[in-house]
Design a protein that fits this description.
The chain has 18 helices and 20 strands. The chain is α/β, with parallel strands linked by helices. It has 2 domains: about 230 residues, Aldehyde Dehydrogenase, Chain A, domain 1; about 190 residues, Aldehyde Dehydrogenase, Chain A, domain 2 (3-Layer(aba) Sandwich), CATH 3.40.309.10. The strands form 5 sheets. The protein has a 7-stranded mixed sheet, sandwiched between helices. The protein has a 6-stranded mixed sheet with strand order 9-8-7-10-11-19, with helices on both faces. Strands 5-6-20 form a 3-stranded antiparallel sheet. Helix 6 packs across helix 7. The structure holds NADP nicotinamide-adenine-dinucleotide phosphate (NAP) and magnesium ion (MG).
C-alpha cells in the first residue's frame, strides 16, 4: 500500500477542502506591500502540527532585510497611499468586510487555527467568533474618534486633532494566533495606522490566511504586512527599527522587557500585554458547582496556555478537601487528543520546548513537596506534546509552581484562612493580569475586587471578555489597555492646533 501523502497525515481529520488547499503549495510567503514574496535569504522554516509532530507547511523565514522592506512599505502606505486619504466611514466598511470574510471562511480558519497550535476544533471555532467580533467592534470606531474645540482667547481658535501614530510593529504569541492577530490589526486599522505584524513562528499559518482575507477585503497595499520569523531575529529587527513608531507586543514578561529596552533609542510608543499568575479565589460560601467549573476552565482551557489562566487557586480552608475532589474529577474527565477527534476536550501544548518546560515545572512541584492529586505526567499518546491535566495540592505560595508562569494545564491549589489572607496571598506575585472571586457575599466580593492588584477582576465568573471593556495588566503583566475606547487612545496621538484669528 502506498504511504499516505505527508500532509494528509499532518492535517488528518480536517474536513474543509480549503484547509488542505491552503496548506499545499508551500512555502507560505511573506506579505509585503500587498504581495506574497519569498524571504530575501530564500530561507524557510517548518510549521508543525503539535498533536502529531508532522510538518504542515514550509513558511518563508523573515530576516532583518525583509522586516526593513515591510517597514518601508508600511511607511509609504501611511504617508502617501490611498489609506492616508480614506474617509473614516470607508475604513468602517473595510473592517466590516474583513469581519464578514472571517465568518464566511470560518470553518477553514478554525481548522487552520486548530492545526497551528493544537487546540481542539471547538476552541478554535470560538477564536473565529471572537476574531470576527473584534473587527466588527472596531469597525464602529473610525467615525467616532473626536478631537476637541478648546476654550480660546478672543483672537484665537484652538482645537485638537486625534491622529494615528504611524507605522506599528505588532508582535504576537502562538496561544491564540487568530484572535491575537485580529485584536492587534483591528486596533491599528480602525485608528488609521499601518502595520508590520510578526506572528509567533509556532502558529503563523492562520495569520497568513487572515492576511489573504485582508487583501481580498481590499486593504490597500502596504497597510498590513505579515512577516513570520524568529523572535530574536525578525522580532528584534522590528522592535529595534528606527522607522517604527509604535510597538504593540503580546508575549512573555521577559521578552516584553527587551521590547521596552529596544524602544528607547527612538522613543517608540510601546504597549505590552504580558504574562500572569492569576489568583482565583474561592470563598467557603461560594456556589460550589459553578466555581469548580470555572476554576477548571480557568486553568485547563486552551491546555492552560492562556495569559489569564487562573493558575493559583486559593480555596478557603473549610471547603478545601471538597473543592480538590471536584477539581480532580474535572481534570480526569478531560479527553486528550488531536484537533478533530470526536469528544476531545484538551489538545497538546504547542511545541517540544513548551512540553519540556511544562513537565519540568511538574517535576519542580513534586520535588518541592507539592502533591499531584491528578495528572502530573506527559499524556499517554505516543506522539504529540500532550500533558495530563494536573492538580497540585500542598502548594505554598512561595514554591516555584506558584510563582512562575507555567503556561500549561497545571493548577496550584493553595488554602487560605480568611479574606485578608486571601488578598495578601493573591497579591503576593510579580504579575497582575487577572483575578477571580467566588462568594455569595456581595460586599466582600466588591471589597476583595478593590484590593486585588489585577487589570481584570471577575466576580462569580471567569475568563469573560467584552471588547467594550479595557484589558491589560497591573505590575509586570503589562502596560496600556487593549479593547474599548482606551485602545483607541493607545493607537492615536493628540495634536494641538492654534489659529490666530
Ligand atoms: P514570547 O517568547 O515572549 O514570544 C512572543 C512573541 O515575541 C513571539 O512572536 C516571539 O517570536 C517574539 N519574540 C521572542 N523574542 C523576541 C525578541 N527578542 N524580540 C522581539 N520579539 C521576540 O512568549 P511565548 O512564550 O511565545 O508566549 C507566551 C507568553 O505570552 C506568556 O507569557 C503569556 O502569558 C503571554 N501572553 C499574554 C497575553 C496578554 O494579553 N497579556 C496573551 C497571550 C499570551 P518567536 O516565538 O516566533 O520566536
Ligand atoms: Mg504549529
Amino acid at each position: 500500500m502506498a504511504a499516505a501523502p505527508r500532509l494528509e497525515v499532518a492535517a488528518k481529520g480536517a474536513k474543509n477542502p480549503g484547509t488542505l488547499e491552503f496548506l499545499r503549495g508551500s512555502p507560505k510567503k511573506l506579505l509585503i506591500n500587498g504581495k506574497w514574496v519569498a524571504a530575501k535569504s530564500g530561507k524557510t522554516f517548518e510549521s508543525l502540527n503539535p498533536a502529531n509532530e508532522e510538518v504542515l507547511a514550509e513558511v518563508a523565514l523573515a530576516g532583518p532585510e525583509d522586516i526593513d522592506e515591510a517597514v518601508k512599505a508600511a511607511r509609504k502606505a501611511f504617508e502617501e497611499g490611498p489609506w492616508s486619504r480614506m474617509a473614516p466611514h470607508q475604513r468602517t466598511k473595510l473592517l466590516l468586510k474583513v469581519a464578514e470574510l472571517i465568518e464566511k471562511n470560518g470553518e477553514q480558519l478554525a481548522e487552520l487555527s486548530a492545526l497551528d497550535n493544537g487546540a481542539p476544533l471547538i476552541g478554535a471555532q470560538a477564536q473565529v467568533a471572537s476574531a470576527s467580533e473584534l473587527f466588527t467592534y472596531f469597525a464602529g470606531w473610525p467615525t467616532k474618534i473626536y478631537g476637541e474645540t478648546n476654550p480660546s482667547a478672543p483672537d484665537m481658535f484652538n482645537y485638537t486633532l486625534r491622529e494615528p501614530i504611524g507605522v506599528c510593529g505588532q508582535i504576537i504569541p502562538w496561544n491564540g494566533p487568530l484572535m491575537s492577530a485580529s485584536n492587534k490589526l483591528s486596533h491599528a486599522l480602525s485608528t488609521g495606522n499601518t502595520v508590520v505584524l510578526k506572528p509567533a513562528e509556532q502558529a503563523c499559518l492562520v495569520v497568513l490566511r487572515l492576511g489573504e482575507l485582508l487583501m481580498e477585503a481590499g486593504v490597500p497595499e502596504g497597510v498590513v504586512n505579515i512577516v513570520p520569523g524568529f523572535g530574536p531575529v525578525a522580532g528584534a529587527a522590528l522592535s529595534n527599527h528606527p522607522d517604527v513608531d509604535k510597538i504593540a507586543f503580546t508575549g512573555s514578561t521577559t521578552t516584553g522587557k527587551k521590547i521596552l529596552e529596544a524602544s528607547v533609542a527612538t522613543l517608540k510608543h510601546v504597549s505590552l500585554e504580558l504574562g500572569g499568575k492569576s489568583p482565583h479565589v474561592i470563598f467557603a460560601d461560594a456556589d460550589l458547582e459553578p466555581a469548580l467549573n470555572y476554576a477548571a476552565i480557568g486553568i485547563f482551557g486552551n491546555t492552560g496556555q492562556a495569559c489569564i489562566a487562573g493558575s493559583r487557586i486559593f480555596v478557603q480552608e473549610s471547603i478545601h478537601d471538597k473543592f480538590v475532589e471536584g477539581m480532580v474529577q474535572r481534570a480526569k474527565a478531560h479527553k486528550l487528543g488531536s484537533q478533530f477527534e470526536p469528544g476531545v476536550t484538551m489538545g497538546p501544548v504547542v511545541s517540544k520546548v513548551q512540553h519540556e518546560r511544562v513537565l519540568g515545572y511538574i517535576e519542580a512541584g513534586k520535588s518541592e513537596g507539592a502533591k499531584a492529586v491528578a495528572g502530573g505526567a506527559a499524556g499517554p499518546q505516543p506522539k504529540g506534546y500532550f500533558v495530563q491535566p494536573t492538580v497540585f495540592t500542598a502548594v505554598r505560595n512561595d514554591m516555584k509552581i506558584a510563582r512562575e508562569e507555567i503556561f500549561g494545564p497545571v493548577a496550584a491549589v493553595i488554602p487560605f484562612k480568611d479574606e485578608n489572607d486571601a488578598v495578601l496571598q493573591g497579591n503576593d506575585t510579580t504579575y497582575g493580569l487577572a483575578a477571580g472571586i467566588w462568594t455569595r457575599d456581595i460586599s466582600r466580593a466588591h471589597r476583595v475586587a478593590r484590593r486585588l492588584k489585577a487589570g481584570t477582576v471577575w466576580i462569580n465568573c471567569y475568563m469573560v471578555l467584552d471588547f467594550a471593556m479595557p484589558f491589560g495588566g497591573y505590575k509586570q503583566s503589562g502596560q496600556g489597555r487593549e479593547f474599548s475606547n482606551h485602545a483607541i487612545e493607545m493607537y492615536t496621538q493628540m495634536k494641538s492646533v492654534f489659529v490666530r484669528l
